[in-house]
Specification:
alpha/beta, Rossmann fold, seven-stranded parallel sheet, two-stranded parallel ribbon, 42% helix, 16% strand, globular, EC 4.2.1.47, NADP+ binding, NAD(P)-bd_dom_sf, GDP-mannose 4,6-dehydratase activity
């Protein structure tokens, strides 16, 4: 018998890849989608799954719409990917970030506890919760020290998930995902900002790329690989928390070099350091240890950073050429 899944954040990068994965596995996929005046389903169309999804109007900030979606969808699995997910914007919108990324998790957990306690729940946690790192490689036992309103809000969402698991016996797991990118990534994120600029500079539509701290180090993987780990967590007999990462850290500078050199350009000729792009509290290094995910889930990343960035440049070259 087929399973039903409800995804929040369906129209984002991870939601689109996860929806495709679940549909390919025979799931009936439902999505909680907030009404917007702009087109938010373009990622789903690019993956060819837009028409195969059951949509429910709602917002994580509104408890009644979350309850209504759970009651209508009757999901076997809920994947809570919805969030204000841009770290930079969380400084300008700290209250909204706290409501959606923190309180919104509680709204979903409460709906499950009251109406569908047998439902398995996945919470999208983040490496930004580690912030000012307390260990060279971060794993499930590394203390958290968030350095942004986004990281703080996500930490609330993470711990409330643990609390509901331990207090009410829910099958609730958290994936502590390190940076994961794709051609579907939003333009506000540094990887897409770089690959989009590379495409525009190569085609003569832009001259420079303004960035902040290019010596910051991140553990970057492919979103399409990471959504498989989300699914695997909910197939386990026991819920738990897992770090999902590549175990390799790279500077923004090196990521720029990869992207520009792919189209035979030198990043040093085009990248301009702009102090306006520096965060109030910088996170200098993030490096995940995915050993537990490899051991328990049998999961490991399939895509390296060079292949990932080159695929993003290719996609942006095509997009920019059509403009």
């Amino acid at each position: 018998m087929y399973k039903k899944a409800l995804i929040t954040g369906l129209t984002g990068q991870d939601g689109a890849y996860l929806a495709k994965l679940l549909l390919d596995k025979g799931y009936e996929v439902h999505g909680l989608v907030a009404r917007r005046s702009t087109d938010t389903r373009w990622r789903l169309r690019e993956l060819g799954v837009d028409s195969r999804i059951v949509y429910h109007d709602g917002d994580l900030a509104d408890a009644s719409s979350v309850q209504r979606a759970v009651l209508k969808a009757c999901p076997d699995e809920v994947y809570n990917l919805g969030a204000q997910s841009f770290v930079g914007s969380s400084w300008d919108q700290p209250i909204t970030t706290g409501i959606v990324d923190g309180l919104g998790v509680t709204h979903m957990l409460e709906a499950i506890r009251q109406f569908r306690p047998q439902t398995r729940f996945y919470q999208a946690s983040t490496s930004e919760m580690f912030g000012l790192i307390q260990a060279e490689r971060q794993d499930e036992n590394t203390p958290f020290y968030p350095r942004s309103p986004y990281g703080v809000a996500k930490l609330y969402g993470h711990w409330i998930t643990v609390n509901y698991r331990e207090s009410f016996g829910l099958h609730a797991s958290s994936g502590i995902l390190f940076n994961h990118e794709s051609p579907l990534r939003g333009i506000e994120f540094v990887t897409r900002k770089v690959t989009d600029a590379v495409a525009r500079i190569k085609q003569g539509k832009q001259r420079e790329l303004r960035l902040g701290n290019i010596d910051a180090q991140r553990d970057w993987g492919f979103a399409g690989d990471y959504v498989e780990a989300m699914w695997l967590m909910l197939q386990q007999d026991k819920p738990d928390d897992f770090v999902i990462a590549t175990g390799v850290t790279t500077t923004v500078r090196e990521m720029c070099r990869i992207a520009f050199s792919y189209v035979e350009l030198d990043y040093q000729d085009h990248v301009v350091i702009d102090p306006e792009f520096f965060r109030p509290a910088e996170v200098e290094v993030l490096l995940g240890n995915p050993a537990k995910a490899e051991r328990v889930l049998g999961w490991s990343p399939k895509t390296n950073l060079k292949t990932l960035i080159q695929s993003m440049v290719d996609a942006d070259l095509k997009r920019v050429a059509k403009e």
